[in-house]
Specification:
seven-stranded antiparallel beta sheet; about 25% helix; about 160 residues; 2 helices
């Protein structure tokens, strides 16, 4: 059976230092802030406020046309403050591997999101991807980009202080 692996990669420079970037992204509760509101993102489990390797997070999202979906991910490969991976254990995809990378830059932190995913249902999944999933994932990552641009729209002075 032919199973297509899709990839989505986004790079963004955030106007804050590596420590603050890691503090934000390593807190699972901030995922709600960077998810479009119409998806009704809700964490169902009670994760700690800082991720660790092996952490299982259960949540629910709503996909068009209003279908609630349960999703379970595991945090893997944590290399604070530079990298972590979340992998789907149960959810809407046949396969989901999301790597987050962070590196210091002259103006703050460069963040790279790399997602590799595979649709279920063979040819029907590929059709659904073509008709809606591709655009929806880009909409989610565009929302995330805009939120982060606004949230971290700051200037780092030479002494490391952050000014909004």
């Amino acid at each position: 059976m032919d199973m297509k692996l899709y990839r989505l990669e986004r790079t963004q420079e955030l106007g804050t230092n590596l420590e603050e970037t890691w503090k934000f992204f390593s807190n699972p509760y901030n995922l709600e802030r960077i998810t479009p509101h119409d998806m009704n993102f809700q964490i169902l489990s009670s994760p700690p406020k800082t991720i660790h390797s092996g952490l299982i997070i259960e949540y629910r999202i709503t996909l068009p046309p209003g279908i609630p979906i349960s999703w379970v991910t595991e945090i893997k490969h944590v290399e604070a403050p530079y990298r972590f991976v979340d992998e789907q254990r149960f959810g809407p995809y046949r396969f989901w591997y999301h790597e987050h990378r962070f590196q210091p830059s002259q103006n703050g932190t460069i963040m790279v999101d790399m997602v590799s995913y595979q649709m279920p249902l063979g040819w029907l999944g590929r059709l659904i991807h073509f008709l809606s999933v591709h655009d929806q994932l880009h909409r989610i990552f565009n929302f995330r980009f805009d939120y982060l641009q606004h949230h971290f729209n700051s200037i780092i002075t030479s002494n490391g202080e952050i000014h909004e």
